[in-house]
Task: structure prediction
Amino acid sequence: MPEIRTDPLTGHRVLISAERANRPMATAASSCDTSDAACPFCEGNEQETPGEVFAIRNPESTIDRPGWKVRVVPNKFPAVSTVHELLALDLTTLCLPGIGAHEVIIETPRHVAGWTELSVAEIDDVLSAYQARLEYWRRESNLKYAIVFKNLGYEAGASQFHAHSQLLGLPIVPEQVAHEHRAAEKFWKQSKRCPYCDQIAQEQAQRDRIVAESDEFVAFCPFASRLACQIRVLPRQHASRFGLLPAQPRRALAGFLQELFIRLERVLVIPAYNFWLQTLPFSSLDANHFHWHIEILPRQSNIAGFEWGTGYTINQIPPEYAAQRLRNI
Amino acid sequence: MPEIRTDPLTGHRVLISAERANRPMATAASSCDTSDAACPFCEGNEQETPGEVFAIRNPESTIDRPGWKVRVVPNKFPAVSTVHELLALDLTTLCLPGIGAHEVIIETPRHVAGWTELSVAEIDDVLSAYQARLEYWRRESNLKYAIVFKNLGYEAGASQFHAHSQLLGLPIVPEQVAHEHRAAEKFWKQSKRCPYCDQIAQEQAQRDRIVAESDEFVAFCPFASRLACQIRVLPRQHASRFGLLPAQPRRALAGFLQELFIRLERVLVIPAYNFWLQTLPFSSLDANHFHWHIEILPRQSNIAGFEWGTGYTINQIPPEYAAQRLRNI
Result:
């Protein structure tokens, strides 16, 4: 059973996959596989992954066979063990059972890497798979939280070239996420305004960090961008659960995101980024204070000793300058 | 003037070097230079760096000329501006002036990379340079905190091959560090024991995470190791300020650390690591609750979207297994 361990002094939590201990140490590192011959995510190689738990397929096709557009499978090397029934957790101990959900969303049957190589309809299918799996785990488990994330490129921690994202569900809400929610709730109580709605209004008034805008979405480089060219994407209309986004704006989001990645690819030196979706924790009811959002974090430089030791990051490109570069492409 | 910006909701702080905005974006990323022809840290190329602020030199040699063993220079691309006089800081604002100290400790005149290629005497000189610069900034500035760190290898964020470390001083104590101090102080108040002394005793009793021991020092893989093969080094004798470590145990530490790096190099797949030294913040008096320590964090896998989005890490090698591998080399 994996474990979620806590450092008693720093409070840092780590997911430790104990059952992988006997694998050779060498496999702890792997570089991106850019060949499609043995790619476990390519159409026709369905037997290389655990059996699918969700797919968008042609009606005449068969489960775990070709004929799919998006395919969701359990992670072959999960960081947490899948359970639906949550054990009673003693949150005061430094070692919790590593239970949760760890799934891979295979975004296309074709051996391509990024969202600039998918069609808008394909990205829309990926987003609808995110919704389906987030709503599944919200409904069918006692997990408290799930994050959807995507890593593209070796520098961003990807170990597979073929376009994929991951969902990781946890029995607790991570402290960093809980902290953000508490701050947002405090702001709401004081002002009766959603702080994210406020941020959209401020960025639109100030304009110098805006990257792109549409009727439904806004993208900007955050004021305290953690690394160069970070982009935050928010829906204009207040909404706390990504799973409830209707089909029409979801399709618009697919096109909006693809445009952002095209802009990024023209500016980035290293084609690597992390992407994640923050939606309402499962343990929360619909919230006035929280607004779902997507963060895109290009990985042009690696984090190092200073960042580990202090928790601060160093960003050599001010967001005002990054946004100008991205906007003017 | 660089800025220290804070995200109002997440609380994340970032050092933004505004004056670097006009540099071409391409230079945001750089790979390790493994050629010594144009290495700015090699003996004979002293004019390629800002003028030295400290050096261990042969008595007959001249400042900023050959004849040195360790040389400390201001960082050519500092993340903070050097000031000795601290302005009054309004800590409630989201944007502080990025003032502090950012120095490079060039560890050897020779074009080598790691501490396995230095002699124990050379490592001892490096440690004594750490002490000199930490004590200098403690005494001569109003800065609140400084961290010494070393990045080796591209995967660990190093942009220069030639062996070097860095000192970064700040006008505030990073929240992550302050959090650890508060937790340690609380433990001290409750038990009248230093929690780090306690950790040494526990690890020595339990034994399964111990990597190496000497009369003066203990090294173990922490219970909640953030990544595979993390090593924490502590002096057995309680001490909160690294700057006050006497010459004899400092020399012993040099040899102890070198042995750890030899062990790591035999186990690691990717020869990359971060190393940092946590000593008492300048703003604290000598403390019963805090014990200086060194963290070594091998970078066998990159952090990715999950880590950015949650603040948690994933470690595929339990520390008990990592310690066994490192111990048995």
